[in-house]
Give the backbone structure.
Amino acid sequence: MPLFEYECLACHAEFTEIVLPWEKDKVIVCPRCHGREVKKLVSSFSYHQSEQDRLSQIDTRAPRDESYYRDDRNIGLWAKKRAQELGVDLGTKFDEVVEKARTGKIFDEYDK
Ligand SMILES: [Zn+2]
């Protein structure tokens, strides 16, 4: 189900909308105050997707907002996807680096 979560910028209500692929330009209206200024949130449903699913859904040409990076599992995925598109084999070394970036260990190394 193409479910998306939105936050109304006027009243901060959070709600879920079904947006079908051909309804990309659909105007999302807040159910509480009927405001049209809404922000898309990272869907809680996406937390249950496999990494492969998440990879396939990344559009490397689309701008990503801050909320994308609030989920640290997204860190590295974008780069991975981009590399796939470019046909670059990042190998296992890349996974290591991503893992370090996710856990913050990458910063430890720079401190030495
Ligand atoms: Zn509202």
Summary: The chain has two domains: 1-41, 51-112.
